[in-house]
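To whoever is covering the structure queue this week,

Two jobs came back overnight. Logging them here so there's a record in the thread.

Job A:
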Amino acid sequence: MIEVKNICKSYNVIQKGEGFRGALKGLISRESEKVQAVKNLSFHIQPGEIVGFIGPNGAGKSTTIKMMSGILTPSSGEILINGRDIHKYRKQVVQDIGVVFGQRSQLDWDLRLGESFELLRHIYRIDKAKYEETLNIMDQILEIKPLLSKPVRQMSLGQRVKGDLVAAMLHAPSVLFLDEPTIGLDVGAKYSLRKFVKEVNEERNTTVILTTHDLGDIEQLCDRIIIINNGELIEDGNLEEIVDRIAPYKTLVVEYYDEKAPEHARCELFFHEANVAKYRFMKKDITAAALIQALSAEAQIKDVSIEEAGIDDIIRIAYGQLKE
């Protein structure tokens, strides 16, 4: 579905001096610095995948998404969508993609929402019957029809995001790019967006590439994540496999009847307060059952629970490694 082959993107950033003298000097001669936002990035995405595309601020995520959607041209490299180069065959390829930027809307603020949709119908040359069919499907997912008569400028942030999602799907694209779509949304709006992504993926086999800092989006939507930093690929793979590799441990939470918390040679007692203790153990070293049996021989256990490493731990560890 999507092939990204050794893409690079560089910018020339003008260097400005401080104060009046620096500004005056800049009028006569300008100094620039070449900044490489994306460096030799390669990956491929299969049809129907939902991929989390993540990284720290300034990692190059949005730049990559803009190149993949045809907004920016790579300095070098190639991007193929459905076998066609996005930049050589832009008009044809954009018929197959939809894009939603969390901080930018493609809706016209001076029109009603329904009028914005009609405008997009004519831009994409969508058949009227097909347009109505798609709108009905989107209404079942997002309940968008009650908003059609409302001016875009009078809509809430959550309502505008709903409108942008529908606008991106009117021409039934096979690929959907979502760049920070949940930024600033409340819990209800985030639920609607995640429901939308799941249903268009399941019902239409839409391929979704999602950039986000919201860990809930990743946990609920993505089986695969791609992590980049400084424009370079850091991790790419199944979410569970990356979790097992980056954080190959579990946490055993034990509540004792008294405040005694025995230690064990094959795990780490990293928290002990009153009669509650937490043990971190490597999955390959010992099983939870064996650890519980050993601890119960030393002290009477009232209750136990097991915590797996979550996506927040993975991101924290991965980002920590990037900074080192």
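Job B:
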Amino acid sequence: MLFLEMILVALQSVRANLFRAILTMLGIIIGVASVITMVAIGTGARAAVDEQIEALGASVLNIRTGNFMRMGVAQSGATLTIGDAEALARDAATVEAVVPEAAQQLQVKFGAENRNLRIVGVTPNFAAVNSYTLAAGSLFTLADDSAKRPVAVLGNSVPAQLKTTREAMLGGTIYIKGIAFRVIGVLEEKGASGFRNVDEQVWIPLATAQFRVFGSDTLDNISAKVSPAVPVERAMVDIERVLRREHNLLPGKDNDFSIGDPRQFFNVRETAANIFAILLASIASISLIVGGIGIMNIMLVTVTERTREIGIRKALGATRFNILLQFIVEAMVLCLLGGTVGILLGTGVAALLSRVLGWSIVVSPTAIGVAFGFSAAVGLFFGIWPARKAARLDPIEALRYE
């Protein structure tokens, strides 16, 4: 009951000096709002990374032509072939599907517009393996690949880059190295995968690419879809075993290829996002400390203003503990009120940023709890000194105070 009365007295004190209380709470409000917003941005960034990882579908490993040593000298060259892809599909038990890829950066012309784009020659299963979906049209077939037909599937942003629309390009003709290609499909937006934006690529049948466009039968990359429930690490070992056998690499000799897991790129991004969020939240927390100092200053002023009141309370039987607790409760009430307003403000700002800027922002209940708890801790910490000063006042001297 005594504690409830103290809370009511604290609320009456806030109402009696409302403008001063608002100014006092301002640091806490800004601090809590900043923490909520910054943590929401960081959490949203991590959620966006998780969505991108999930968008990759099942684990897809990229086998690339790698640097290797020859006669003690670092060499690089095309070391992957169709035979390697066929061997992986046939002998790698942990691999569900394989997509051989050959790619070059070439000029693409449509009407009067042209753009330098990445042309990727692939087998027809490239969309299924990489979890790509069609926005319009269709994909090329095994028959298109076998016949080396000049057909193309575009990334989602290619029409915009060529200053036209998807509808205008679908069924139309683009020119790659002077060869006319009929556009048969456009993919849904996918975004960046690793260091490349797949929306800015053009896919054509692998045989068409190798023998009609690139003039080479080597591969730049092999995408291998790991079988369900198979650990990625086990699949990497299996792939390495098959390729070392195909390349006749003796024990102790370095690989002339590299196996990359695209998730590593996203893990780096997630780590960077976490560090950035922690940094921003730490900076925002400084406002809470500043707000706590402001509350301590105001509470010291309040003790001076209420010296006579303290003397009367002590004369009526209030103990040091009662006075100490009263002023600590008042400091905590100020901080908790400021924390509540800060939480509402921070949540509102996060929602506004998400709506206006299109950012992926997630307001975490944990962040709200921590910010609210921290504001209470600030009130307790910075309220102790003024409360002790009030509790140690001599009642006779306090009653004489004017």
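Note for Job B: The mean pLDDT is 78.

Please reply-all if you pick these up so we don't duplicate work.
Q.
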